[in-house]
């Protein structure tokens, strides 16, 4: 409970600081830009977000249906929306998956099966992220989208490498049981030397259990290659639609200084960097990255307004929708459990 309160406190402080530094130099200019928003185009950006999350939910549904053929798109979409809320309030987006496993249990999927489904879904998402990241880097080298900031450019490649290493480790753990066990225990013992992990036996048991799920998932992945390729495709569509939102936001502000390709590449770099920022929602770092990369194409009140609108849609609004979905789903569950005389 203390960790949750601390995460929420850090998130609020970070958001307040972001708003302060974004608005302090040209508050009236940002407000003036907000007044000129093209409402239909802005609503289109929200619609694109919802469609993007639909594709993400289609991936999850495919994997869950391997264990429960009656699992519907509606339930999967609800689960994805709830995940947006829980991931948004926890560091490194770690809060969604455990609760999603719990909700899947409520929908009749065994914990072991739902865990395997979540692992498969995360693997397909990670592969899609790497594919889109590679495409963005290759395109940026051709049309020179990279900034003059050596530090930021270094973070792009660092973010890509970290995500790639995560993918390699996930595949290693899931496809090679013996190697995965050895490597995991080596990592635990390495950190133990620096007293970063305590209660070693308890941690080792957790690792054994987790690796068992990974290995079981790996065995199933070998048998369902068609499904994994479909889900990678769904996640690529999800990411491309999500990355399209900044371009639409600039259009809603009647600004034409950034092309769709430049926008897609820039936001891809922003997301690669944000994945390893430990603050909930990557707040602070992700806004700074947006301002730096899109600062090549826009400036002043336009840039600040676009960033705030983009963050509202993809983060704040997504969390609000997820929270409402969670409340409604809980209400439905309570009603289902009532006995009517």
TrEMBL record:
Top EC class for this record: transferase
GO molecular function term, any single one: phosphatidylglycerol lysyltransferase activity
One cellular-component annotation, GO: plasma membrane
UniProt-listed InterPro entries: L-PG_synthase/AglD (IPR022791)
Domain of life of the native organism: Bacteria
Keyword Cell membrane found: yes
Membrane-spanning parts: 37-55, 122-143, 155-176, 227-249, 255-273, 285-303, 309-328
Record-given protein name: Phosphatidylglycerol lysyltransferase
């Amino acid at each position: 409970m203390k960790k949750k309160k601390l995460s929420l406190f850090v998130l609020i402080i970070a958001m307040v600081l972001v708003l302060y530094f974004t608005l302090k130099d040209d508050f009236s200019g940002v407000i003036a830009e907000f007044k000129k928003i093209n409402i239909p185009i802005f609503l289109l950006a929200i619609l694109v977000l919802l469609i993007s999350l639909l594709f993400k939910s289609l991936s999850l549904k495919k994997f869950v249906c391997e264990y429960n053929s009656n699992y519907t798109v509606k339930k999967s979409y609800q689960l994805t929306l709830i995940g947006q809320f829980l991931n948004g309030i926890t560091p490194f987006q770690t809060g969604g998956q455990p609760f999603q496993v719990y909700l899947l249990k409520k929908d009749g999927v065994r914990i072991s099966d739902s865990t395997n489904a979540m692992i498969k879904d995360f693997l397909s998402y990670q592969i899609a992220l790497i594919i889109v990241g590679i495409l963005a880097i290759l395109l940026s080298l051709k049309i020179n989208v990279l900034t003059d900031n050596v530090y930021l450019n270094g973070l792009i490649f660092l973010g890509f490498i970290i995500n790639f290493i995560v993918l390699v480790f996930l595949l290693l753990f899931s496809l090679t049981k013996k190697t995965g066990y050895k490597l995991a225990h080596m990592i635990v013992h390495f950190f133990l030397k620096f007293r970063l992990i305590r209660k070693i036996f308890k941690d080792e048991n957790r690792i054994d259990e987790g690796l068992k799920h990974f290995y079981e998932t790996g065995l199933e992945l070998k048998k369902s290659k068609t499904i994994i390729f479909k889900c990678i495709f769904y996640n690529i569509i999800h990411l491309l639609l999500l990355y399209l939102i900044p371009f639409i936001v600039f259009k809603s502000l009647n600004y034409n200084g950034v092309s769709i390709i430049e926008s897609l590449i820039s936001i891809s770099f922003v997301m690669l960097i944000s994945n390893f920022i430990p603050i909930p929602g990557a707040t602070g770092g992700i806004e700074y990255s947006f301002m730096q990369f899109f600062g090549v194409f826009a400036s002043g009140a336009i840039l600040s307004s676009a960033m705030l609108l983009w963050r509202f849609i993809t983060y704040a609004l997504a969390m609000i929708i997820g929270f409402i979905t969670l409340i409604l789903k809980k209400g439905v569950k309570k009603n289902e459990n009532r006995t009517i005389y």
